[in-house]
Write a structure and sequence with these properties.
- This protein is an alpha/beta fold and about 425 residues long.
- The chain folds into three domains: about 130 residues, 3-Layer(aba) Sandwich (Rossmann fold), CATH 3.40.50; about 160 residues, Dihydrodipicolinate Reductase, domain 2 (2-Layer Sandwich); about 80 residues, 2-Layer Sandwich (Alpha-Beta Plaits).
- It contains 14 helices and 17 strands.
- The strands form two sheets. Strands 7, 8, 9, 10, 11, 12, 13, 14, 15, 16 and 17 form an eleven-stranded mixed beta sheet that branches. Strands 3-2-1-4-5-6 form a six-stranded parallel beta sheet, with helices on both faces.
- The chain is elongated, with a radius of gyration of 24 Å.
- The chain starts with a strand and ends with a strand.
- Bound molecules: 1,4-dihydronicotinamide adenine dinucleotide, the ligand N[C@@H](CC=O)C(=O)O and sodium ion (NA).
- The site of the ligand N[C@@H](CC=O)C(=O)O has 11 residues, from helix 7.
- Keywords: Amino-acid biosynthesis, Metal-binding, Methionine biosynthesis, NAD, NADP, Oxidoreductase, Threonine biosynthesis.
- InterPro entries: ACT-like_dom_sf, ACT_dom, Asp/hSer_DH_NAD-bd, HDH, HDH_cat, HDH_CS, NAD(P)-bd_dom_sf.
- GO terms for molecular function: homoserine dehydrogenase activity; metal ion binding; NADP binding.
Length: about 425
């Protein structure tokens, strides 16, 4: 049995979780990897800081290059985050012939194409199961379990922070800022929480999922991204009354050999399983042309849940079952973004109006000018001044038509505020 030396870059939530899980499940991990694993070094910012894991047998250094240049270390775990220094360190580690495991979705989504090519050139592995949906083994499912399928759709709640916020707003009627503050305190949020609430983190993960699912290069810049900061508790309440739950969803769909990728708040039918993925949990729906719909659920963030994925990659490398060609690099498909204007969709509209007779008739008529019907509608008086919220669900139409209709409706003098438009996905 060999002794495999590991160096960790960053000993925070995920790094600390990795050390703890390696300790707690040592016997099983040795049996499954066939080798002894020894974390010999860790790079930290502050040597004196208290940590969530023991560090007695780990040599701590403030110079991460000492780890990637150390000849005795064969696998480097990059768990410090960021796309500057982390990239330089991973490149150096690969050039020194080391395998790398990372949880850094921002880095993989942005520089994954070149980093994977570099790893291939140096015949080393660069694995990142923890980067997408934390503890859920979703990349392995796509790469291995679903490899017989043509993937048609990937749709997921893949950011724990934004899902936590929406769930708190929905279940406890809390406001956005209050729920975000708690998500930060619970350690779910990214170093820059804008990444979570503006959908950037979801887009990073979606880029990785789409690349894996459709066999194309990583295309983070092609993803249309919209955050949840505009979602009010009123919209959540109205959506519920209309039979939907608002979720922050990343979707990658193949349409006539083009790829549609977007991240946005979305109304999902309350009867759909994804609408019941709550709090920090993640849920991913994958549709394959042989298997049909499959659904994956589990913790999308957290120290030991994320460590579970990091260590699974590490075990793959040690027992030699990791695959260099995880994106199908030998035969990448050239697939481009499709024009979203003509894509069929259902919409939720919410208007704030000064009440007077004939408003609903006007709205119906204007929508009808663009062949749009109202499938469900509700009204709520919101103050003593007789102002009303009107929330409605359309039939199947498209982006271009709804935007034109909304521009026309917006011109009526009784419309007080900008009309809110949210996509509805039936996920069929
Ligand atoms: N927290 C979570 O649940 C998840 C995190 N991730 C990803 O894992 C990575 C790490 O995240 P966390 O553990 O949550 O962050 P963290 O902030 O808890 O830990 C990062 C650690 O790296 C250290 N570090 C940063 N720069 C350093 C440097 N130059 N030299 C030495 N140490 C340095 C920091 O001091 C900190 O202790 C990020 O890429 C994150 O996006 C991925 C999945 C889930
Ligand atoms: N900030 C992320 C952490 C895991 O990827 C999230 O909230 O999902
Ligand atoms: Na994962």
């Amino acid at each position: 049995m060999l002794l495999v030396n590991i160096g960790i870059l960053g000993l925070g939530t995920v790094g600390g979780g990795v050390v703890n899980v390696l300790n707690k499940n040592q016997k099983q991990i040795i049996r499954r990897s066939g080798n002894n694993i020894n974390v010999t070094h860790a790079a930290v910012r502050d040597i004196t800081q208290t940590r969530i894991c023991p560090t007695k047998n780990i040599k701590l250094t403030q110079d991460p290059f000492q780890i990637v240049n150390n000849d005795d270390i064969s696998v480097v775990l990059e768990l410090m985050g960021g796309v500057g220094l982390a990239k330089n360190l991973i490149e150096q580690a690969i050039k020194n012939g080391k395998h790398v495991v990372t949880a850094n979705k921002a880095l993989i989504a942005t520089y994954g194409n070149e980093l994977l090519a570099l790893a291939k050139d140096y015949n080393t592995h660069l694995l990142f199961e923890a980067a997408v949906a934390g503890g859920i083994p979703i990349l392995k499912s796509l790469k291995d379990g679903l490899s017989a399928n043509q993937i048609e759709l990937v749709a997921g709640i893949i950011n724990g922070t934004s899902n936590f916020i929406l769930t708190e707003m929905h279940n406890k009627d809390r406001n956005f800022q209050d729920a975000l503050k708690e998500a930060k305190a619970l350690g779910y949020a990214e170093a820059n929480p804008t990444f979570d609430v503006e959908g950037i983190d979801t887009a990073h993960k979606l880029a990785i999922l789409a690349s894996m699912a459709f066999g194309c290069e990583l295309q983070f810049n092609q993803i249309t991204t919209e955050g949840i900061s505009n979602i009010s508790s009123e919209d959540i309440t109205y959506a519920t009354k209309l039979g939907y739950t608002i979720k922050h969803i990343g979707i990658a769909k193949k349409l006539n050999d083009k790829l549609q990728m977007h991240v946005r708040p979305t109304l999902v039918p309350t009867t759909h399983l994804l609408s019941n993925v709550n709090g920090v949990m993640n849920g991913i729906l994958i549709k394959g042309n042989a298997v049909g719909e499959t659904l994956y659920y589990g913790a999308g963030a957290g120290d030991e849940a994320t460590a579970s994925s990091v260590i699974a990659d590490l075990i793959d490398i040690i027992r030699n079952t990791a695959n260099h060609d995880i994106f199908g690099w030998k035969s990448l498909i050239n697939i481009t973004k499709c024009n979203t204007n003509s894509i069929a969709s259902i919409f939720y509209l919410r208007l704030l109006v000064t009440n007077k007779s004939g408003i609903v008739k006007d709205i119906k008529k204007t929508l009808a000018n663009y062949d749009i019907n109202i499938e469900a509608i509700l009204q709520k008086k919101i103050n003593q001044k007789n102002d009303l919220h009107i929330a409605l669900i359309t039939n199947l139409t498209n982006n271009s038509k709804i935007n034109k209709a909304v521009t026309d409706i917006q011109k009526y003098d009784y419309i007080i505020d900008e009309i809110k438009i949210i996509f509805v996905e039936t996920l069929n």
